[in-house]
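Q: Structure tokens for this one, please.
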Amino acid sequence: MARFAEHRFDLVILDAALPDLAGLARGRRVAPADRPPLLFLTTCGLLHGLLPELGPDGEDYVTKPVRIAELLARAQVLLRGRAPERQGTHRYGDLVLDDSTCQAWRGSRQLDLTPAEYRLLRHLPANAERVLSKEQISRHVWGGYRADPAIEKLVSRLRRKVDEEHPALIRTRRGFGYRLGHPGHRNAAPAR
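A: Here is the predicted structure, written as tokens:
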């Protein structure tokens, strides 16, 4: 449940037999608009304890043993009323970019970016896992050549904003350039 604030999910399926369903209360602190619908897997014996927990905000249950067709049908019903992702919104792990407002978020935290920082951050996910040279970054962000120190300063500022409080996404490939690392890779090379 704590991951609601870190990542955005379309639907969460929880086994009601999990020992820490007190986490459900923590999940309810997330605004319903930001919280995905919950679908519980339960046994008939646990149903009496689960029913009071179910609320009107996109929560349902399926009894075990689960029939896949029923699980899929319930999931579709829960997802039906959800607002579709706005056009111009791009995601990379817990990084969200909204081109219509030129705003970015990492997890639940909005990033305060300059136009150049936003252009660079928008360019990195489009080239994820590829190393971008300083020349490529300069051409994309400013439309022409900028000296290496200007690019290094831009990347440094952006890295402080994006990677603050989170695992590093912006990685340096010494002598080659920069890339956006995969947010889920724990074995990735050091970011700096």
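A few notes: Confidence is low (pLDDT under 50) at residues 25-33, 185-192. The first strand starts at residue 12 and ends at 15.
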